[in-house]
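Render this sequence as a predicted structure.
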Amino acid sequence: MSESLFMKLTDEPVKEIDRLIMEQIKSPVELLNQACFHLITAGGKRIRPRLMALITGLISPDAVYNEDILSMAAAVEILHTATLMHDDVIDEGLMRRGIPSVNSAYGNKVAVLGGDYLFTKAYNATIKATDARISRVFSDALTTLVQGELTQMTNTANLEITEESYFRTIYSKTAVLFEITTKIPGLILNRTDAEIEALAKYGRNIGYAFQIADDILDYTSDSEVLGKVVGKDMDEKKITLPLIYALNNDRGISRETIYEAINGGRVEEILQIISDTDAIASCDKVAERLISEAIDAIAVFSESDYMQALRELAYASYRRKY
């Protein structure tokens, strides 16, 4: 994502959030530090902390450096990092953010235990929050994340998966974390239930669009730009939205033909089918609708630089190269 208003408004809060992340995850066990810092310090877009800072500014610009909110932004990023460490073990991922994944660099056992450690650190931060609802939001999200991973595993190579089922899965794997990111500032700053739901809808829809972009990039990017191996979804027979649209095409390409290409690992043929069925264009239409609904949801708040930045971030979450 290029430098823009949402980056400029959040660069300083994110520096403080990064400091809190390092403070919260530091361990007396050096191997844990090495494994966790390996991924945390490898960069990443920090989109969730940035998003929480922007939502806070939208509600109340004076609260951008609210200690509880900064701590929760750090906790969300720690939770996200934990899920990445576990995902790479499950998917046997070798690259993450352009460097060897934690499991590749330190082994599966260290990656699993490191992820577990980060989960506990993220949850511990919520216990210190002044609003008791935060811990419940976090624990519910963690439950949803685990269920989402298992659901995706059971749907591997399932050619009958529906678009509705796909969205349930990506809510559990991705959108729920965006949802709590945008919901938490509303809880801490005591907004109305209607306002909190508007914030949650913005985050949820951005999360959907973000994951659809990820699924498209698996077909359209390259490993050097993406920072992880391209084509893993195809290799692992994950049926994501581009394939769902391809499987339900009206161009005369049968499911059997597509399934044979997937089973045979014929990547070029699958890419050609995706192109011939206009599956990416269909994904674009869905993402555009989700982004539009997200922006409409937060129209209940006053116009400001933070509102404009959230519009930019909404589109940037989908129109990205990595």
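Summary. The CA atoms of residues 158 and 313 lie 33 Å apart. The longest strand covers residues 95-96.
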